[in-house]
Write a structure and sequence with these properties.
The complex is a heterodimer of chains A (355) and B (1187).
Chain A: H1 8-11, H2 49-76, E1 79-83, H3 97-102, E2 109-115, E3 124-130, H4 138-142, H5 146-150, H6 178-181, E4 187-192, E5 195-197, E6 199-200, H7 207-213, H8 244-250, E7 258-265, E8 274-280, E9 292-297, H9 308-333, H10 345-348
Antiparallel strand pairs in A: 1-9, 2-8, 3-7, 3-9, 4-5, 4-8, 6-7
Chain B: H1 4-14, E1 38-42, H2 48-53, H3 70-78, H4 82-93, H5 103-136, E2 139-144, E3 148-153, E4 162-166, E5 174-180, E6 186-190, H6 192-195, E7 200-204, H7 215-219, E8 223-227, E9 239-243, E10 246-250, E11 255-256, E12 261-263, E13 267-274, H8 280-284, H9 294-327, E14 329-330, E15 333-334, H10 353-367, H11 376-393, E16 407-408, E17 422-426, E18 432-443, E19 446-448, H12 454-461, H13 514-526, E20 531-534, E21 541-544, H14 548-559, E22 562-567, E23 571-578, E24 583-595, E25 603-610, E26 613-620, H15 622-625, H16 637-649, E27 652-661, H17 664-679, H18 685-696, E28 701-712, H19 716-725, E29 729-733, H20 738-747, E30 755-760, H21 765-773, H22 776-800, E31 807-813, H23 814-820, H24 823-834, E32 838-842, H25 846-860, E33 864-868, H26 874-879, E34 882-886, H27 893-897, E35 900-902, H28 907-946, H29 958-962, H30 964-968, H31 970-979, H32 985-990, H33 996-999, H34 1006-1030, H35 1045-1067, H36 1073-1095, H37 1098-1101, H38 1107-1112, H39 1116-1143, H40 1147-1152, H41 1155-1163, H42 1171-1186
Parallel strand pairs in B: 17-29, 17-33, 29-32, 30-31, 31-32, 33-34, 34-35
Antiparallel strand pairs in B: 1-8, 2-3, 2-4, 4-13, 5-11, 5-13, 6-7, 6-12, 8-9, 9-10, 14-15, 16-35, 18-19, 18-28, 20-21, 22-23, 23-24, 24-25, 25-26, 26-27, 27-28
The chains are: A alpha+beta (355), B alpha+beta (1187).
Chain lengths: 355, 1187
């Protein structure tokens, strides 16, 4: 018999079978929330002509004053730049600069006279500038051991320092690596009207370097003892964190032309004064055609002399204003094009073409 | 009919007395051979022979991974992506000295990114695992040799075990039904988990085993089953039962499939045939073919482009590095002495410059790897999943009546929804409700039924001007009846919408042919395969019907006084009102044979014995029925034909009802032949059966015809109109008759007034003549010629009408389609079809539907979407780029095969125009932006290299770089991909032309992609050159300090982070607090990171130590250069957009202005102004406001 005692509605517990959806059954109706229905309150920026013109003019109005201020600040900076690498080769060595620089016995002293163009208020920063010197070369950047520099107990950790890791007798070099090895070793002595001009060489490195990266208990060891002498030698009785020239040098530069802080002159220099600089021209840039400059510069609130920022601000501001004008012109001369073909096309041809 | 195919499949397993078995009967012969080699020793799993066969146990595992292989396998899956392989190789190489940065800083983001994806896999797999464990540990009663049943876990079952399954339990494996609590060995099965169909199916055991109903009988029961090997066909089973020395053929009728449920039967006994993964349902569990969107395919191309540019710039870098390195050795002197190249590894050796250049190339590949967005894939995956959540959660796509939400079953096609060119739609159940309502009938030449159908109303609206129509469709005199429409009289019954006082409530006895009317309804009440379901408490009867049409018939018969309430194996019982006595009487009809419906037969008959009469009751399609009428039976033929024409014009489904009396002798003769045919095992058994059936289904007496309405779904015309406005083509592929299809076409505004119809058909006299002659070759030739002629004629019509912008509708029938889809004609056909505004293919088979889909997809190369609800649409859904299943009344097969499931056709509008548009836009923007941000960042590294003699030193700190894709820029992109909206949902719907952006792929066109890339290149140039020029050599602070490597790096990086995030802010159209939060917190996080990272001891932070706090933050130059760079990088895009919205606005630019208006109309409900007017207003508004 096919008499069915119970029906699926009472027998089955699964709702899908149920021909009578009962009221208490949970519906699958999605719960309303602005989030799930994608109706969150939102700001919908539209590029209306008003907004575009306002934005462009606003940028122009903000940028041009900034540009002017930057330019002004840059112009106010007094900077003396003197290239000395060529002139500091005695005429007799003109054709063999390399020989000159690599010969320990030649007199490297070189006198330069610089004229102060404008009043230079202290502090006057003294920089040396190298160009065509790739401190950002991967081999060079890596060639140091931060551990070793930081503490005495890591003296022997000279990974990455090859080939300046160990001295001949397998003693670790401190500080090891190419960067330290090629330390810049030109020196400058300044005098004005035969009065020596003091150069403060303290505090030219970053505090963080002095305090955390270079140890106070780490002393130079086996440095520049090898077959090849790179750059400056270090006083092995001064701990590394006080060797500020080294610390400055070890902060590698990003670009092949760079300046590094040499010291500060902490007196004002009157305009027209002549500064005599006695340069010990030791550093070899002749091999790779690098230039050496001595730079004396004051600073403004923006830093040193560089017109680029101001000019760029002015340019961008100007472009914005120009675009604003162009946009107004477009707006006035060419209102929204009429009869844009895509505009009502479906209306004429509901099915359209397959395109 | 459309679902003929499916009917054939399902009916065969429905009924125990089914006479026509499935194909595969002939395969019985093959048992024992290859493919049919399984041997099951019933009740004797320990048989040594069985042990030799070594069939697997019933343990299942559906997980993708096991604990052991999870790590390698999931990793393998991940690294199948080209980009990931690259990253893997880079990660490996990064441990060598070649690496430009510390290996860890590269590995960590990779691990993070891969880890997120793998974690997702793991979570999904764990869920599957839990399900497996649950299934494996379910309990079932197994017969043990000693005559008792004991409970055991599913996984312990073995092939040959006899199990006892109780009511509402799932079958643990594929079983052979031995017997049930019913004497005749039947049981009811719910196959919801197999095919999603909710109606109960009937299974019946072989007679010989139906008596095995207790433990004692089982003790002596041994048998051997020889059957097919495991396969995935749910609807077929071939096997023999060797029992008591005899051989009994088995059919799907005796098979209980795993994962289906026993219903309404107290218990059954069964023998395990297929265990575990051999079970048919497990064999079926193949992973669906994964579809990929066009955007994703293009994205791959872009990745390749990026790879090529990566290789290119690496090559350039290496080339220059090689030259530079070689130049280091001049006259045996090392130029750059400070590099000590005299004592170097091969990587920098000037004496081996080309080799070092080669190694440098590898380094460069790593260094510039930031061009390839590492987090792109995982970001896109996250975004798509979230987008799918939004689709699933959309309340506007929730259908109350069936309690169904939209479901994105695959998330990787979301954006494809925004690019659909062509929709191929099924009709029944998709455009229409597939809830059949009995509305009209014609009995003995008299038309009954006064309701007005939707189509009639639509046709009444249709204003026929002087337009020449190729097929004349006369207007139906519906006005007279219009009064009755829409007013429900009395209680309304689902499936029944018939109003006619003449025959309702028993008044039919007063009509001129009461006897015929009675016969008519008897046929409706008896000739079917419906199972009645009586609810005991209320006495109400529900009908479990295979097809909605049949249910409608049975319900109609019931409402008119012929209540079908019981069916057993051999009889059908009706409750009729005996008008002479005025009381309800029960009448039994002895059921002798059922001659089943099939799509080729197009009819179904039953042979019953009522009292002394032998009757053949028959119903079928008009084409099959009229030719079978006897001379005397044609009394009402003319009138009935007239009515049928009218009905089909009104969009109704027609069934012709006839009967005949059979003489005893004739019956006996026929039965002999029929049973012989039935018993035959030869290959042409089906044909024999057909011939036999054909012999008895003759000399019929026409009773009349029924007309069932398949109502249009709610909102279909509006939806179709909207889709048309969005310039999405809609083709309807239906199995319906031409007239029905055309009329539904009008009703749903697919065919519009003023459209010219091109009809391609083979219903011409000369073809019919050839058909009758049976010369197949000549017929094919003539048909082909006729079709090509018709297509050509259609094309010439098109060209001639081009000037006056005439629209065309193409209507083609299934037979013609067969020829039109042949190699020679398909191009021509397609050309004609795509130039017509609408296309309707009627009388098309599932295969044809798939073929048309493929034709469109391949030949046009456009995105096609097919939408359907039934099993007959499955192939079409799988063939199309996107398959949308309607989760309607026709079971779940279509939904299972689909990529998206919606409850109603009208939701397609929202799915495409809103979600499709948004998703397309979001993904397109997101990918473009991804490339932008990575190019902008990656190229700054390259420019820097140019100033570092290409030595491979990165400009930034290692960890800064590695967090770029993971922390500083990733969240805003995801927010963009998930939340951005160019215009609100209601505007999307109001202005369907917005859809063009996706359809024409404007937002992801090559010009746009390259534009974004160029923008990235531009940004990188601006960032690099501005910062380097600002910070060159002079002091960058008041205290005279100069910028070193780290300061420049941090400044540049700050600019990059600001620039890409502001660029994002600029390109977002929709700012919720989420976007604000993500964008600005990404920027803020960079500073926080700088602070924290810089604060950690220099052992860890190395070069980044205190850079921000000590060096850059007090520097005004740093902040000013950031401002300068950010504004300059934004300026090109900003001005481009400003001028572009002005001069060449994209659709969304126009419509965005209407944001506020939409919010208002939304609150006030549907706007009544037509879209056309709206657009006009919009246009005027903008003109006004700006002049």
């Amino acid at each position: 018999m096919v008499e069915r005692g119970e029906t699926s509605s009472t027998g089955g517990s699964d709702g899908t079978q149920d021909p009578f959806p009962s009221a208490k059954k949970i519906t699958k109706r999605p719960k309303y929330s602005r989030f799930t229905q994608q109706e969150l309150p939102a700001c919908k920026p539209i590029l209306t002509p008003g907004w575009v013109i306002t934005a462009l003019i606003l940028v122009g109005v903000i940028f041009i004053p900034i540009g002017l201020a930057s330019l002004f600040a840059s112009q106010r900076v007094v900077e003396i730049v003197d290239r000395y690498d060529e002139d500091c080769i005695p005429p007799s060595f003109k054709d063999r600069a390399l020989g000159f620089i690599q010969d320990d016995n030649t007199d490297k002293t070189c006198i330069r006279k610089l004229t102060v163009p404008k009043l230079m208020k202290s502090p006057i920063y003294v920089y040396y500038q190298l160009s065509n010197f790739y401190q950002n070369h991967r081999r060079y950047v890596k060639s140091r051991s931060d551990k070793q520099l930081r503490s005495r107990k890591d003296e022997s950790k000279t990974t990455n320092c090859e080939p300046e890791a160990f001295a001949g007798d397998k003693q670790p070099i401190v500080p090891c690596g190419l960067i330290a090895w090629s330390l810049f070793n030109d020196t400058y002595k300044f005098s004005v009207t035969n009065q020596p001009l003091a150069v403060n060489k303290r505090n030219i490195a970053w505090d963080s370097d002095r305090e955390h990266k270079f140890g106070s208990d780490v002393y130079p060891k086996n440095f520049q003892n090898g077959r090849l002498i790179g750059g400056a030698k270090l006083n092995s009785s001064i701990p590394l964190n006080e060797q500020e020239d080294l610390i400055v040098w070890m902060r590698t530069a990003a670009l092949p032309t760079f300046r590094k802080l040499y010291g500060r002159i902490e007196v004002d220099l009157e305009a027209g004064k002549e500064i005599t600089v006695m340069i010990q021209n030791n550093y070899n840039t002749y091999d790779f055609g690098g230039k050496k400059h001595l730079v004396l510069s004051t600073t403004s609130w923006l830093g040193g002399k560089n017109d680029f920022l101001g000019a760029a601000y002015l340019a961008v501001g100007g472009i914005c204003l120009f675009l604003a004008v162009a946009f107004i012109l477009v707006y006035v001369l060419k209102p929204r094009p009429l009869g844009d073909p895509s505009y009502l096309s479906w209306n004429r041809n509901p099915a359209g073409h397959l395109n | 009919m459309t679902r003929g195919q499916r009917r054939k499949l399902r009916l065969s397993k429905l009924y125990s007395f089914s006479c026509i078995r499935l194909h595969g009967e002939e395969r019985h012969a093959q048992i024992g051979q290859r493919g049919y080699s399984r041997i099951v020793y019933c009740n004797d799993p320990d048989n040594p022979a069985a042990a030799r066969l070594n069939y697997k146990g019933n343990h299942v595992s559906t997980t993708k991974y096991t604990v052991a292989n999870f790590v390698p396998k999931s990793l393998f899956e991940q690294f199948r992506r080209v980009a990931n392989i690259y990253f893997l190789i880079v990660a490996c190489v990064s441990f060598s000295p070649l690496a430009p940065f510390t290996a860890l800083s590269f590995v960590v983001p990779l691990v993070l990114v891969i880890g997120v994806t793998i974690a997702k896999e793991a979570v999904e797999d764990c869920q599957r695992r839990e399900q497996d464990i649950e299934a494996n540990n379910r309990k079932v009663e197994v017969y043990s040799g000693n005559g008792t049943f004991h409970r055991t876990r599913w996984k312990n079952l073995r092939v040959g075990n006899v199990v006892k399954v109780y009511k509402d339990e799932y079958f643990p494996a594929d079983l052979l039904l031995l017997s049930s609590s019913y004497e005749d060995g039947i049981c009811y099965v719910d196959t919801m988990n197999l095919d999603g169909e909710t109606n109960l199916k009937l299974r019946q055991s072989l007679d010989v085993t139906s008596s095995l109903r207790n433990e004692r009988c089982l003790q002596v029961f041994t048998a051997v089953i020889k059957c097919e090997d495991p396969n995935d066909n749910l609807y077929s089973f071939v096997g023999n039962l060797h029992y008591n020395g005899k051989e009994y053929p088995l059919s799907p009728q005796q098979i209980l499939l795993r994962d289906s449920k026993l219903k309404n039967t107290d218990y059954i006994y069964g023998v395990v045939i297929f265990t575990g993964h051999d079970a048919k349902v497990m064999q079926n569990a193949t992973h669906p073919r994964s579809k990929r969107s066009k955007i994703e395919k293009r994205m791959d191309k872009i990745i390749y482009i990026l790879f090529s540019s990566l290789i290119f710039i690496s090559f350039v870098g290496s080339f220059f590095f090689g030259i530079e390195t070689r130049r280091d050795l001049v006259d045996k002197k090392y130029r750059r002495w400070y590099l000590r190249l005299d004592d170097t590894t091969v990587f920098y050796d000037p004496t081996r410059a080309s080799l070092s250049a080669f190694f440098h190339f590898l380094t460069a590949l790593m260094l510039y790897g930031y061009l390839i967005p590492i987090s792109l894939y995982v970001s896109i995956e996250i975004v798509k999943v979230l987008q799918s959540v939004f689709i699933n959660q959309d309340r506007h796509m929730y259908y109350e009546a069936t309690d169904k939400t939209a479901r994105a079953r695959t998330s990787n096609l979301n954006e494809e929804l925004g690019q659909v060119h062509m929709i191929l739609s099924d009709k029944t159940g998709t455009l229409t409700c597939n809830s059949m309502e009995f509305v009209k009938c014609s009995i003995a030449g008299i038309a009954y039924g006064q309701g007005e159908t939707e189509v009639e109303r639509a046709l009444a609206r249709k204003d026929w001007s002087s337009e020449a129509n190729e097929i004349s469709i006369e207007r139906i005199d519906s006005h007279g009846n219009a009064v009755h429409s829409g007013k429900p009289i009395g209680h309304s019954v689902k499936g029944f919408n018939f109003r006619d006082e003449r025959i309702m409530n028993g008044t039919w006895v007063n009509e001129s042919y009461p006897d015929l009317i009675r016969k008519f309804f008897e046929v409706l009440a008896i000739c079917h395969t419906v199972i009645p379901d009586v609810i005991r408490e209320t006495g109400d009867i529900y009908y479990e019907a295979e097809s909605q049409d049949e249910a409608a018939f049975v319900i109609a018969a019931r409402e008119l006084g012929f209540e079908f309430f019981k069916r057993v194996q051999t009889s059908i019982s009706l409750r009729e009102l005996d008008y002479e006595r005025g009381e309800k009487i029960e009448r039994n009809y002895e059921l002798l044979h059922v001659l089943e419906f099939s799509s080729s037969r197009k009819r179904m008959s039953v042979i019953v014995r009522s009292k002394a009469d032998l009757l053949l009751l028959c119903k079928g399609a008009d084409s099959a029925m009229f030719e079978r009428l006897s001379k005397d039976g044609r009394l009402f033929e003319h009138a009935t034909r007239d009515h049928i024409t009218k009905y089909s014009q009104a969009g109704l489904r027609i069934m012709v009802i006839a009967y005949r009396k059979i003489e005893e002798e004739e019956y006996e003769l026929w039965e002999d032949e029929f049973l012989k045919a039935k018993a035959s095992l030869s290959a042409d058994r089906d044909a024999l059966l057909d011939t036999a059936a054909d012999k008895i289904e003759r000399e019929l007496i026409l009773l009349g015809a029924t007309a069932v309405e398949d109502k249009l779904q709610e909102g279909v015309p509006k939806c179709i109109e909207k889709l048309a406005q969005a310039q999405i083509r809609l083709w309807v592929l239906t199995g319906d008759k031409l007239e029905t299809a055309v009329n539904i076409g009008y009703a749903c505004r697919l065919l519009r007034q003023g459209m010219r119809e091109i009809v391609i058909t083979l219903d011409s006299p000369d073809i019919e003549v050839l058909e009758k002659q049976g010369d197949k070759e000549a017929l094919a030739k003539a048909s082909l010629e006729s079709i090509s002629k018709q297509i050509r004629r259609g094309k010439s019509q098109l060209t001639s009408a081009k000037e006056n912008a005439m629209e065309f509708g193409l209507i083609i029938d299934g037979k013609s389609l067969n020829f039109a889809l042949t190699k020679n004609l398909e191009d021509m056909f397609l050309d004609l079809a795509i130039n017509c505004a609408s296309v309707i293919c009627c009388r098309s088979s599932p295969k044809q539907k798939a073929l048309v889909t493929r034709l469109v997809k391949l030949k046009l190369g456009k995105t096609t979407l097919s939408v359907g609800d039934g099993a007959n649409d499955v192939s079409m859904l799988q063939e199309a780029d996107i398959g949308v299943g309607i989760s309607g009344v026709e079971g779940m097969q279509a939904v299972m095969a689909s990529d998206f499931a919606i409850a109603q056709f009208r939701f397609l509008e929202r799915l495409l125009l809103v979600h499709g548009h948004w998703c397309y836009r979001r993904i397109a923007m997101m990918i473009c932006y991804f490339f932008y941000k990575n190019i902008a960042f990656g190229l700054t590294l390259f420019w820097f290299e140019a100033y570092a003699s290409f030595s491979g030193q990165p400009a930034y700190n290692d960890w800064d770089m590695s967090f770029y894709n993971v922390f500083f820029t990733s969240l805003p992109v995801i927010a963009l991909g998930v939340f951005d909206q160019d215009v609100s949902a209601c505007l999307c719907l109001e202005y369907p032309l917005l859809y063009q952006e996706g359809k024409q792929n404007i937002l992801f066109s090559w010009s746009r992609i390259l534009g974004w890339m160029a923008n990235g290149v531009g940004s990188s140039i601006i960032i690099f050159f501005c910062t380097t020029n600002v910070m060159v050599e002079q002091a960058f602070r008041r205290d005279g300090r100069v910028a070193d490597f780290q300061v420049l790096g941090v400044t540049m990086y700050t600019c990059v982070v600001w620039a890409v995030n502001c660029q994002m802010a600029l390109s977002i159209n929709y700012f919720t607090w989420i976007q604000h939060f993500f964008i600005w917190s990404s920027v803020a996080f960079w500073y926080i990171f700088l602070l924290i990272y810089g604060y950690i001891s220099p052992t860890i932070s190395t070069t980044a130590y205190m850079v921000f706090l000590e060096a850059t933050s007090p520097s005004l130059l740093y902040w000013l250069s950031t401002l300068l760079v950010v504004v300059s990088t934004l300026l090109p895009y900003f001005s481009y957009r400003a001028f572009q919205t002005r001069l060449q606005p994209m659709p969304h630019d126009l419509i965005q202005r209407k944001q506020r208006e939409c919010a208002e109309t939304k609150t006030s409900g549907e706007s009544s102004i037509g879209t056309k007017d709206k657009l006009k207003h919009l246009k005027e508004d903008t003109e006004h406001s700006e002049s």
